[in-house]
Each structure stands twice: as structure tokens, then as C-alpha cells.
Design a protein that fits this description.
This protein is mostly helical and about 325 residues long. The chain has 15 helices and no strands.
Length: about 325
Amino acid sequence: MDHSGHGMNMDLPPFTLGRGLPFSADPFFLIGCVLALCLYGYGVLRLRRRGDSWPVGRMVFFVIGVLTIALVMCTRLNDYGMVMFSVHMVQHMVISMLSPILLLLGAPVTLALRALPVAGRGRKGPRELLLMLLHSRYMKIITHPVFTIPLFIASLYALYFTPLFDFLMGSKTGHLAMMVHFLAVGLVFFWPIMGVDPGPHRPGYVMRMLELFAGMPFHAFFGIALMMATSPMVETYKHPPASLGIDALSDQNWAGGIAWAFSEIPSVLVLIALVFQWYRSEQRTARRSDRAADRDGDQELKAYNAYLASLQARGQ
């Protein structure tokens, strides 16, 4: 397939990390990354100016999340990803599984709700429109596991094992649309699981873990399928440029290994975040119970003891 329409040099030298990291910006993602950082920074600045705080950790997570997108879309990795299945798979896994987790840990929706001004009575400003969107039927549908898990799986099997992938890779617009899709799917899949920002679908911690592990095995199976294949499975990468000095089947095996490995890394990262959130939630609940006990003289404990005493009296 001719990728000259993407404005890239087909005679790329053999891939090394040093050759993949130099700046080579995709304008769409470059503008998007800069805009995201500016808006987030503006929101934090608004909070600080009125005397409110914003956790440094959340800022760090969000910035790193944006930088991971820039890493795979605004460097030569994006050029190599057009002709090397393995590099493309790095892009896919980062932008669909690592970047969304980091962005969500930055709690951008919570920041927006706190930073945006409240509109006057009877008026609808950006904050009110955002709240309407969060509580809309549309958001309830696209963040429900019945929708997110099949979408997450289809982004692998229905894309790479059908002609759709080759069609999208045939144009710059198609390639951009595919990458935006990967990012959007990752965000809607991990949003209710992470549970940092408010949303219409907010299950308990056990259900979040089940949702996480319901989707991850399919990534592993997809990677194994690529590694076990005896011939190239994706038309786009069947005939890599001779200048790269690579074999298409070997490169596909590397792509499968990358997909398999990434099925484990985000799972561990999200699981750690969930356990930490669960622990903090239990701590807050315990503190509220202690404060309530201090206010009412621990009436709940006294009532429970009285109940036990009544049971004992009836048993005598």
C-alpha cells in the first residue's frame, strides 16, 4: 500500500528508538495536546486565584497522559507506525490503554466543574451544559459496560481482522480517525472503572474490577493470535519498505507480543489505583462514623448492645 499520501518518506532507515523519537508532529494531535494542557492549566490557575487547592498528583498524571499521546503521535514513531506493524501496535496500545488511564487520574471533568463559573438563574453556561451532558441518556449508554466492553473488543478484532483497517490506513483522514477512535474507546472504557470523575455509571469497587478483567483477556488473545499466525494477517504491513530491513511475519510477531504485554500493564496500574481508592473510601467512611458517634454519644453502639442483651434475656 502506498502511504505517500501521508506526506512521509517511504525510504525510512531501519528502526531504532533514537530514530523513532525525534519530533515529527501530526498537526491535529499537536494542537490537541497543547490545547488540553492549556485548558487544564487555566482551570488549575482559576482555582488557585480564588484560594482553592488542586492536588499536584492529579496535575502530574494529566500532563504525563498528554505527553504519552504526543510521544506516539508527534514523533517519528508515527511515521514508522505507517509501515511497521510493531510500531503501530505501540501507538495503539499507548493511546488506547495507557494515555486514557493517566488522563482520567488527572480528573479533568472534576476540574472543569470546579473551575467553570456558575451561570445566572435561568441561564445555561458551559458548566451547566457539561452537567447536562454528564446526566444525559447518551452518556449513560456509552459508559455502560454492556456498550463499553464490546466496543473495546471490537476495536481489535473487527478492525484488524477485516478490510476496515486497510481502508483507514489508506488516507491521512482515516488514520487520524482511527487514532481518535482508539483514544475515545479507552476513555469511555476506563472512565467508570477509574471512578475519579463524576459520571452516570458508577458501580462499586468489586464490579469495577470485574469490568476491568472482562475486557483485558481479549487483548491477550488478540496478541497470541498475531504471534501464532504463520502468515501476515494485515494487508497494510505485508510488504514493508526494503529500507527497513525487516520481515513482515517477524514484525507481526513483535506486534502480537506488544499487544499481549499491554493487556497486563494497564490492568496492574488500574488495579493499584482501585485498591488505593477503595482504601481511602473506607477511611473516609470510618472517619464519618467516628464523628457521628462523637455527636450522638455512640447511640448506634448502645442500641446494638441493647439488642444483644434482649436476645440473651429471651434465651434464658
